[in-house]
Amino acid sequence: MNVIDRHLGISPDALSVRARRIELLSANLANADTPGYKARDIDFGETLARVRDGQGAMRTTHSTHIQAGSGAHNMHLKYRVPSQASLDGNTVETQQEHAAFMDNAIRYQASLNFLDGRIKSIISALRME
Amino acid sequence: MSLFNVFEISGTALSAQSVRLNAIASNLANAGVVSDSAETAYRARYPVFSTIYDSARASQQPGGVKIDGVFESKVAPRKEFSPAHPMADEDGYIYMSNVNSVEEMANMISASRSYQSSVEAMNTTKQLIIRTLSLGR
User: Fold this and answer.
1) Residue A22 pLDDT more than 90?
2) Comparing A62 with A14, which gets the higher pLDDT?
3) What is the ipTM of this complex?
């Protein structure tokens, strides 16, 4: 982990997990009318901790191996417990998914703002202003 | 970048919902069609959705929606005694389509709401991507 990575802190990992969660929630919204579809979600904190630990990431066992991204691709998908499941077996509750989607989008933007501040501070350090 | 997958997923939802809206429009348009036998009477058509799973990923990540097919309603067509009607059979019956207009209207609202929520998801994602691209400026 180099100096810049260390300076950027947790935000890049948080962003990648947030992006994965947005993808998952949009799949839930897309399948709101699919019979038998079960809504899926991830535990953000747990997934972020896994990504930070490097669990699920590919190991580089040779000096020429390239690090293939973070472990955000390998996450434990959980099933959402519906408060009122529909008769066709679908457990998507659109309003709940919408709320989670917006919440996630705002938190994504928050992480983006933190990252932006860090990047700007690196740039100003490099310029020696 | 996985945010771009949202467009693919929501895109499949948009096309699935528009097929559903098309089927509803055709059902409503044919609600008043009269036929001379139970076999040829118009039957309401419904698309059936199923989920596309991303098999490349280990944990069965759900993706978009696909349409398995368009199926005809199994409800028997409404039989009406109307000997004066030109389409009446030898016993004087005509066969109306089995479309339930109220059900179709409710279906239509559901389809258009689902369409809207997918569009909204795409819009939000678009803003997030634009903000991500302007990182550090």
Assistant:
1) yes
2) A14
3) 0.83
**Dist. CA A7–CA B136, nearest whole Å:** 14
Band (A55; pLDDT cuts 50, 70, 90): low
Contact B70, B45 (CB under 8 A): yes
Single-letter code of the amino acid located at B93? Y
How many angstroms from the chain centroid is the CA of residue B62?
Answer: 20
Mark which residues 58-87 of B lie under 8 Å from A by CB.
58-65
Report the largest interatomic distance among the alpha carbons of chain A, rounded to a whole angstrom: 64
A to B CB pairs, distance under 8 Å: 109
CB B32 within 8 A of CB B119: no
Q: Read off the tokens for A64.
A: 């020429």
Q: How far apart are CA A92 and CA A99, in angstroms?
A: 12
Q: Which of B57, B70, B68, B91 is nearest to A40 (CA)?
A: B57
